[in-house]
Write a structure and sequence with these properties.
single chain, about 90 residues, mainly alpha
């Protein structure tokens, strides 16, 4: 099972464009970098998942839950992650 299978809700088509996904990921990365917080593959995915679930604490400007969902659909599995649970 894909790690983001719970995040398959469909948003507006423009959110699924590669440019919008890049914008979303860039905003999340910049927000992490400007606060001095560590950034890794796992923290990026975790932050996108929190935003997708409705977390608005320190929400990067111009990013919303639907945008985070679209970005999660584009991200491949983390290195070394198992596709199967259990």
């Amino acid at each position: 099972m894909h790690a983001t299978s719970g995040y398959r809700r469909k948003g507006p088509d423009y959110l699924n464009s590669p440019d919008m996904v890049a914008f979303t990921i860039g905003r999340v990365v910049m927000a992490k970098m400007t606060t001095g917080r560590p950034l890794s593959w796992n923290t990026l995915r975790a932050r996108l998942m929190h935003i997708a679930e409705g977390d608005t604490v320190d929400l990067p400007a111009g990013v919303n839950a639907e945008m985070a969902l679209a970005a999660l659909r584009y991200l491949p599995e983390p290195p070394g992650a198992s596709r199967f649970k259990g």
